[in-house]
Every structure is written in structure tokens, then in C-alpha cells.
Specification:
Layout: E1 2-6, E2 15-19, E3 29-38, H1 41-47, E4 64-72, E5 84-88, E6 97-101, E7 105-107, H2 121-134, E8 142-146, H3 151-162, E9 166-171, H4 174-183, E10 187-190, H5 196-203, E11 209-214, H6 221-227, E12 228-236, H7 249-254, E13 258-261, H8 269-282, H9 284-289, E14 296-301, H10 305-314, E15 320-324
Parallel strand pairs: 8-9, 8-11, 9-10, 11-12, 12-13, 14-15
Antiparallel strand pairs: 1-2, 3-4, 3-6, 3-15, 4-5, 5-7
Length: 326
């Protein structure tokens, strides 16, 4: 088969479409013939040498894919050759084939194309596990999403609105904020021009956000605490703004607030399977009903993954950039 390999850490040119051995499904796995994969910022970090795959995982980048089951490994039930699926991966999505633990498979939702489905698993599992399973966003509460026009952000807006929450977003341009509004965002904050702490306070009558989904880490830590409501929950899922910050524990105590920080890629198989099962139960009916949809900015041939990485690095996209197997 062919896969995107990383000859040595570096820029997008380090991504090479090369011939590699076919994967073989092990116990509890299926082999998926990939139709499409999607780009995540973790892939950019892996390309740069900063985010190695977990031990035993595929060395190729790609944390999600869609395709058809080509082979069912030993110990797998409930899936058959030919089934159209999308999958949460620890790696290997930038390839023509990938072996996937059966617990990380999802059927392609009704109303979603096979290619579009590649944009779902990583973002939906990330949002559902953090915002709903951990932070327990409830109807009537306010969710603040940093990076509202990203793949994560566009899904978070829709899921929060579907359960009856109010949604605030930050983004870096009027155009991106307009796209967020089209998806249902209620409070639009241009982080280049406005202070999100002041804006969220004003929009909520001084209360603040009940849940904040944060991709920035250290850079936003103090302001996120100030933007939280009493009993608020801060869910950190990215570190684009650094890894070390100063935390005012007094402010945290005064608000009876909680901070959680998670990554999805390195979780044990049973935890990933539990998240995937919850997503299938709670999110897939919303996709079927048309209340939630994947937002795909553009499709790029997988053998031109370098161009896809350039697009994501420049942050000119809204939603996901999808790689289609040529």
C-alpha cells in the first residue's frame, strides 16, 4: 500500500507518499480500506518531531479516517467486510489501509458522505468526552469555545446548541465569526480586537461561562479562570499558547471551579471504546436528524498532504481539511 511517511522531522515537505508494507489486523481489529482521512494539529506536531505515536501504533500520521472494512480480524463481532465506517485512530490515517481496534469503529452516519465522515471521529470524540462526559454541560448553561471556527469548534458549537446550551466563541476574523454564527454561536468574540473576559461577562450579566473548552493552555489560563462562572469547569485540550502558566488558586477556590486537561490519543483502548460508544449513542442520532453536521473546508488528495498541512498551519480554513485517497 501507500502511506504518508515522515522522512525526518521538519516542514510540510517532510511528508512523502511512499510504498510501505500492508498492515495486518490483530486480535480484536479490522482492516479498513481508507477512503479519506482528516488533518488535526496533532499531525503537524508529529511531522515536526514533537508528538510521537503511542507505542505499538502505526508510525504514519492521521488520527481519524473513513472507508470500508476489507478484513475482519480474530475476535471481532458485529462488523463485516464491506461495511462503511469511520474510525478513531492512534495513527495511520494517512494511508490506503489501516488496522483499527473494533471498539474505535463507528458506522458512517445517515446523510453523511463517506468522505465527509472522515472529519468526524477525532473532533466528535474530543468534544463529547470533554464537554459532556467530563464537564457535564447542561441545558441553559453557557459554553465558551476558543477557536470556534476550527474542526473542534465547529462541532462543539453544534453539539452544545443541540442540547440547549448558549454558545460563545472566539475567532480571529469577522469572516470566521460569521461562520460560527451560521452554526448557532450566540456570542461572537474577535480575540484580536476584544477581551474575551470582558465580553463573556457582559454577555452573561456578569456571571461568566459555565464551561470553557480551551486549546491555548498557559497563555489563556489566568483569563480563563476570570471568565469562568461560579461552579465553572475549564477543559484544556490543547497547548498552542504554551505549557507552563501561573494559577491563582484563590480565584479557583472562590469560584468553586474545576480544571481538567485531557488528551485522546494516548488513552487506553477501553477508555477510547467507551467514548466511541457514548458518541454513537448520543451524537449519531443528532447527525441522522440533521442537527449536527461535519464542516469540511476543503478536500485535498492524500498524496499532497504537504499542501493540507500548509493550509492548516496558515489557519485560513473553517472546519476540517480532508485528505482523499487518490
Amino acid at each position: 500500500m501507500h502511506a504518508i511517511t515522515i522522512t525526518e522531522p521538519g516542514g510540510p515537505e517532510a511528508l512523502v507518499w511512499d510504498e510501505v508494507p500492508d498492515p495486518v489486523p490483530g486480535e480484536g481489529e479490522v482492516l479498513v480500506e481508507v477512503a479519506a482521512g482528516a488533518v488535526n494539529r496533532a499531525d503537524l506536531l508529529q511531522r515536526q518531531g514533537f508528538y510521537d505515536p503511542p507505542p505499538g501504533s502505526s508510525p504514519y500520521p492521521g488520527l481519524e479516517c473513513s472507508g470500508r472494512i476489507a478484513e475482519v480480524g480474530p475476535g471481532v463481532s458485529g462488523w463485516a467486510v464491506g461495511d462503511e465506517v469511520c474510525a478513531l485512530l492512534a495513527g495511520g490515517g494517512y494511508a490506503e489501509k489501516v488496522a483499527v481496534p473494533a471498539g474505535q469503529l463507528l458506522p458512517v452516519p445517515e446523510g453523511v458522505s463517506l468522505t465527509q465522515a472522515a472529519a468526524l471521529p477525532e473532533v466528535v470524540c474530543t468534544v463529547w468526552s470533554n464537554v459532556f462526559m467530563i464537564a457535564h454541560l447542561r441545558p441553559g448553561e453557557t459554553l465558551l469555545v476558543h477557536g470556534g471556527s476550527s474542526g473542534i469548534g465547529t462541532l462543539a458549537i453544534q453539539l452544545a446548541k443541540a442540547v440547549g446550551a448558549k454558545v460563545a466563541v472566539t475567532a480571529g476574523s469577522k469572516e470566521k465569526l460569521e461562520r460560527c454564527a451560521e452554526l448557532g454561536a450566540d456570542i461572537l468574540i474577535d480575540y484580536r480586537e476584544q477581551d474575551f473576559v470582558e465580553e463573556i461577562k457582559e454577555a452573561t450579566g456578569g456571571a461568566g461561562a459555565d464551561v470553557i473548552l480551551d486549546i491555548m493552555g498557559a497563555k489563556y489560563l489566568d483569563r480563563n479562570i476570570r471568565a469562568l462562572a461560579v461552579n465553572g469547569r475549564l477543559a484544556i485540550i490543547g497547548l498552542q499558547g504554551g505549557v507552563k502558566g501561573e494559577l491563582n488558586l484563590g480565584a479557583l477556590l472562590a469560584k468553586r471551579a474545576a480544571i481538567t486537561a485531557t488528551s485522546l490519543r494516548s488513552r487506553p483502548l477501553e477508555e477510547k471504546a467507551a467514548i466511541v460508544a457514548a458518541v454513537r449513542e448520543h451524537v449519531w442520532p443528532l447527525l441522522k436528524a440533521g442537527h449536527v453536521r461535519p464542516v469540511v473546508d476543503r478536500e485535498i488528495p492524500m498524496n499532497d498532504a504537504a499542501e493540507a498541512h500548509r493550509v492548516v498551519e496558515e489557519s485560513g480554513h473553517v472546519g476540517k481539511v480532508v485528505l482523499v485517497v487518490p
